[in-house]
Specification:
Structural class of chain A: alpha+beta
CATH superfamily of the largest domain in chain A: Succinyl-CoA synthetase domains
CATH class of the largest domain in chain A: Alpha Beta
Number of domains of chain A: 3
Shape of chain B: globular
Order of helices and strands of chain A: HEHEHEHEEEHEHHEEEHHEEHEHEHHEHH
Number of helices of chain A: 15
Shape of chain A: elongated
CATH topology of chain B: Alpha-Beta Plaits
Helix content of chain A: 25-40%
Number of strands of chain A: 15
Strand content of chain B: 15-25%
CATH architecture of the largest domain in chain A: 3-Layer(aba) Sandwich
Oligomer: heterodimer
Structural class of chain B: alpha+beta
Strand content of chain A: 15-25%
Distance between the termini of chain B: 18 Å
Largest sheet of chain A: 6 strands, antiparallel
CATH architecture of chain B: 2-Layer Sandwich
CATH topology of the largest domain in chain A: Rossmann fold
Number of helices of chain B: 3
Chain lengths: 401, 72
C-alpha cells in the first residue's frame, strides 16, 4: 500500500530524517495562508498516489500567497493518472546545490533488504542504473540485526564521497533503513535527497510503500496517519471486476480465491500456490500470452469460491479460455479446485473441454481431481509437466483458436 | 444443483433424532440440516463442497449413509 508524500514525510520525521517544514492544504485559501506563514518562494506538490507529478503539472512554485492560491487551485483540479489530488503539500523552496538518491528495497534474490544509493538524484533511479551505473551502489543488510552505521558508511563511501558529506549522509541512510525494517515497508525512497548550499542535507521528496500484510501490525502508525482500513491505497482504484473478486474472496474464510488484478488479454488465469501465481503469470507473458487477469488462489478454497471466481473471469469481455495452473499443492485439494472450476464453466454456459485450455494442478488429492477432469474431457497434467511448460502449452492453445 | 456428489441416507436414519443431530454436527461443510419436522434435510447447495471425509458414514450404522461420486 502506498503512502502519500505527506504521510511518508511524517513517518520519516519520526526517524529524524532531515525534512523541510512542510504543511498540507486542502483548499487554495489554506494554501495561500500557509505560503504567507512560510514566507519566500514555496513549492506546492499535488498529493496523489502516483509518480510523474512534475511532468503532469502537479508541482508548482509560488513567490506570494496570491500565486500560491492560484497554483493550489490549478493543482487541486488536475487529475494525475486518473487520480484527483487529495491535497497540496507546501514547503519552502530549497536552495539545492546537489541531488542524491537513497532507497531501501527488499532484494528477493538475496532474501535480504538492500540499500541503494546514488550521487545522481532527482531522476528515475532506473535511468541512473541503466545509463550511469558507476554513479549507483547498493548493498544488502541483515533484517535481524540492528542497522549498522558502518555498513551505511561503506555504501556512501563506495562512490568516493568523503568528509562532511560522508558524515552527514551516513545517518540518513541508517534512519531510512530503520524505518523500512520497523514498519514492514517494501520501499522507502528519498529522491531527491538534496545537499543545500549551506552544506546541510534535506529530503525533498520521498516514497514509501508498506506490505499489505503489515497493516495489522502497523495499526498504531496507520491510525496516527489517519489511514483507514477501507483505504486500499493501490496505484489505481480497483475496477468493478477486481471489487467483485474481493467480494468472492470474502464470502467465506476457506482459502483464497479472488485476489485479482484485471488486464486486457484473452486468456483468463486461475493460478497460485507458493509463489506459483507470479511464476505462471510471467511464464504466460514470456510465451507471448495475453493474460486477462492476474489472481491468486490457494489455501484450499471452497468449491463455491473457485466456482464464483471462474464465473467472474469468464464473464469478462474478450476472455476466450481459462488456464488453471498451480504449483504442486499440499494444503489445497486438486479435486476441490477442479470441481469449482468445472462448475463455474458449466454454470457460465460453456463446455469445460473447450473453455479450459489447460489444467495443471498436481498434488493433494490429484487422483480424485483427475477423475473429474477426465469425465469432462479437460486437458490436464501432473507434476511431470513443469509450470513453465504448462504456461507454454496454454499460450500455444490460444494461438490456435 | 449438485454436479459431483450425491448423498443417500436410509429413511430410518433420516427420521431418528439422535442420528440426525450427529450428522448435522459432524459434517464440516454443512450438507446436513434439521428440517422443520425434526427430520434430516439435505442442503443441496452444499453437496459439491463434500470433502469425502466419511465422517457422516462413520456416524451412522454401516450402510445407512452413502456418498456417491457422480464423476465415477
Amino acid at each position: 500500500m502506498r503512502f502519500y508524500e505527506y504521510e511518508a514525510k511524517t513517518l520519516l520525521r519520526r526517524y529524524e530524517v532531515p525534512l523541510a517544514s512542510f504543511r498540507v492544504a486542502s483548499t487554495p485559501e489554506e494554501a495561500a495562508a500557509t505560503a504567507g506563514e512560510l514566507g519566500g518562494t514555496v513549492v506546492l506538490k499535488s498529493q496523489v498516489l502516483s509518480g510523474g507529478r512534475m511532468k503532469a503539472g502537479g508541482v508548482k512554485f509560488a513567490s506570494s500567497p496570491q500565486e500560491a492560491r492560484q497554483a493550489a487551485a490549478e493543482i487541486l483540479r488536475l487529475p494525475i493518472s486518473g487520480q484527483v489530488p487529495r491535497s497540496v503539500l507546501i514547503e519552502p523552496k530549497a536552495p539545492v546545490a546537489k541531488e542524491y538518491y537513497a532507497g531501501v528495497i527488499y532484494n528477493t534474490l538475496a532474501k535480504r533488504p538492500a540499500i541503494i544509493f546514488s550521487d545522481m538524484g532527482g531522476i528515475d533511479i532506473e535511468e541512473v542504473a541503466e545509463q550511469h551505473p558507476e554513479h549507483l551502489t547498493q548493498a544488502t543488510f541483515s533484517s535481524l540485526r540492528p542497522v549498522s552505521d558502518y555498513k551505511m558508511k561503506e555504501v556512501v563511501a563506495s562512490l568516493g564521497i568523503t568528509g562532511n558529506e560522508l558524515t552527514a549522509l551516513t545517518p540518513i541512510l541508517s534512519r531510512l533503513a530503520r524505518a523500512f525494517l520497523a514498519h514492514g515497508l517494501t520501499l522507502a525512497e528519498i529522491n531527491p535527497l538534496a545537499r543545500l548550499e549551506n552544506g546541510s542535507f534535506v529530503c525533498l521528496d520521498c516514497h514509501v510503500d508498506m506490505d499489505e500484510d503489515a497493516r495489522d501490525r502497523q495499526g498504531a502508525l496507520l491510525q496516527e496517519l489517519g489511514i483507514g482500513r477501507e483505504e486500499t491505497r493501490q496505484a489505481r482504484p480497483p475496477t468493478p471486476f477486481e471489487i467483485r473478486g474481493a467480494q468472492i474472496d470474502a464470502q467465506d474464510t476457506r482459502g483464497v480465491a479472488g485476489r485479482i488484478v484485471e488486464f486486457d488479454g484473452d486468456l483468463g488465469l486461475i493460478i497460485g500456490a507458493g509463489g506459483g501465481s507470479l511464476t505462471l503469470f510471467d511464464a504466460v507473458r514470456k510465451y507471448g500470452g495475453r493474460a486477462a487477469n492476474y489472481c491468486e488462489i490457494g489455501g484450499n478454497p471452497s468449491v463455491s469460491k473457485a466456482c464464483e471466481l471462474t464465473k467472474l473471469i469468464l464473464s469478462k469481455p474478450g476472455v476466450d479460455k481459462i488456464a488453471v495452473m498451480m504449483n504442486v499443492v499440499s494444503n489445497t485439494r486438486v479435486d476441490i479446485v477442479a470441481r469449482g472450476v468445472i462448475k463455474g464453466v458449466v454454470e457460465s454456459g460453456y463446455d469445460p473441454a473447450e473453455k479450459i485450455a489447460i489444467f495443471r494442478i498436481p498434488g493433494s488429492w490429484e487422483g480424485e481431481g483427475f477423475k473429474i477432469l477426465r469425465k469432462y474431457g479437460v486437458e490436464y497434467y501432473d507434476r511431470s509437466v513443469s509450470m513453465d511448460e504448462a504456461a507454454r502449452r496454454a499460450v500455444a492453445k490460444m494461438q490456435t483458436v | 444443483m449438485a454436479m459431483f456428489i450425491r448423498v443417500e441416507v436410509d429413511p430410518q436414519v433420516a427420521g431418528q433424532a439422535d442420528l440426525v443431530k450427529k450428522l448435522v454436527e459432524v459434517c464440516p461443510v454443512d450438507i446436513f440440516a434439521t428440517g422443520q419436522d425434526g427430520a434430516l434435510a439435505i442442503v443441496e447447495q452444499n453437496l459439491d463442497e463434500c470433502t469425502l471425509c466419511d465422517l457422516c458414514i462413520q456416524a451412522c450404522p454401516p450402510g445407512t449413509v452413502k456418498v456417491v461420486k457422480l464423476y465415477e
